[in-house]
Amino acid sequence: MQDRLTDLAIGNVLSNAINIGNRLNFFKVIAEISNAECPVLPEKIAEKAGCKERYVREWCNTLACGRILEVNEKEEFWIANENLEALTTENFPLMFNSMLSTVLKPIDTLIECFKKEGPYGLDYSAYSDFEEMQQKFTKIVHEKHIIPDLVPAIGNGIKEKLEAGGIRVLDVGCGGGFHSGLLAEHYPKSQFVGLDITEKAIKAARLKKKSDGTDFENLEFVVADAAIMPSSWTDSFDLVILFGSCHDQMRPDLCLLEVHRVVKPDGLVAVTDVDGSSNVFTDRETYGKMAAMKYGGSMLHCLPVGSNRPDALCCGSMWGRKRAVEIMNKCGFDNIDIIPTDYFPGTVLYLMKK
After folding, report:
1. Residue 93, in any domain of the structure
2. Phi, psi (deg, nearest 5) at residue 230
3. pLDDT along the chain (354 residues), means of 10
4. CA atoms within a 13 Å half-sphere pointing along the CA-CB vector of 91
5. Do 185 and 216 touch, CB atoms closer than 8 A?
């Protein structure tokens, strides 16, 4: 076990070093100015990156010893050809190393939440940098697949209805409006509404422009609690979508009751969420080491923000299929299809009809 703990500590150090290098564009700089035939000294990397040589040298030394970078006896560095894509392109593992530091920022307060007399949970504001990083992460993972993969997966003629226009779509927990904007631009004849409880997120969302720089005419954003949506919305949306935002609710049941109220009779509800079984043994056997990442992410962020009041259900992102379906059933959704979404790593689609 001591060796295992040592390996974990080393991995933690390397993960943070990767985060630093990614944020300062060191990997792209190294790839641009060096290779196995022409390695470079840290001073060249520092000069190109606009950073201090001494810090860059220690960073290079750390990642070379961790066998992320290559090094020779002259203490010159480069990236092996087989590692170039992983270290220089936006991808899931690289982004997750960068996201990790944002959820660790409030760790001292999170520790207090574990104690019986401590706070119930943490407010979203405790994760000041997480929202921005989450938007980048979502864009990388989702942008290529929302239109060609997710929309057809919803089925029920929704693609054709979106194209023909005349339908209303609600994005619950829209954050900065990435999904809403993507859908609104691709389906200009339909109307889209994004809802989020965070004023900062909605303020940013309202600044969104189409890819050609023009204003949206079919997209609006509203600041509201997902458990208390405007009373005028009853039976008014043809499609309600929650992109990974259900498990973060302190009362996802109240949110889903509101979703049931605002969606039209025979309307559709699509919920993408982290996939799990609601049993940790089954999840460990199914996902292997990725299960630790799923539960760890929940422990560090999703559970605290979803537990921050006395009546919270405290679901966490690994609430799993069994518990999710039980709550959805109690909120009036009797027939629930669970559809794999392999194009979104570790995610599943719950599809419901009112």
Report:
1. no
2. -50, 135
3. 91 93 96 96 97 96 96 96 93 83 91 96 86 74 90 95 94 94 96 94 92 95 96 97 94 97 96 96 94 93 95 96 97 95 91 94
4. 9
5. yes
Residues 81, 149, single domain; the answer is no
Domain extent, residue 70, equals 2-88
Provide the pLDDT for residue 101: 86
- DSSP class of 40: B
Judge if 127 and 266 occupy the same domain. yes
Query: Which CATH number belongs to the domain containing residue 304 in this structure?
Result: 3.40.50.150
Cα 230 from Cα 24, distance rounded (Å): 43
Domain co-membership, 118 together with 255: yes
**Does residue 84 sit in the same domain as residue 108?**
no
pLDDT of residue 132: 72
Q: What is the CATH number of the domain that holds 32?
A: 1.10.10.10
Give the C-alpha separation, 251 to 256, whole Å: 9
Cα(132)–Cα(128) distance, rounded to whole angstroms?
A: 8
| pLDDT given for residue 130 in this prediction | 77
Which pLDDT does position 245 carry in this prediction?
92
Compute the distance between CA of residue 254 and CA of residue 310 in angstroms, rounded to an integer: 15
Q: Which two tokens stand for residue 223?
A: 């600041």
Last residue of a domain, one of 60, 88, 116: 88
Q: How far apart are CA 138 and CA 143, in angstroms?
A: 8
pLDDT at 95: 82
Q: Residue 240 corresponds to which tokens in the numbers above?
A: 């309600």
Supply the pLDDT for residue 253.
97
Domain-embedded: residue 96: no
Residue that is last in its domain, among 35, 66, 88: 88
Separation between Cα atoms, residue 351 and residue 141, nearest integer Å: 20
Q: How many domains does the structure of the chain reveal?
A: 2
Two tokens, residue 16: 């943070």
Do the Cβ atoms of 187 and 165 come closer than 8 Å? yes
Residues contacting 19, CB < 8 A, separation 6+: 97, 98, 100, 101
Closest CA to 270 of 339, 205, 332, 219: 339
Dihedrals φ, ψ of 289, to 5°? -65, -20
Tokens 């996902």 -> residue: 287
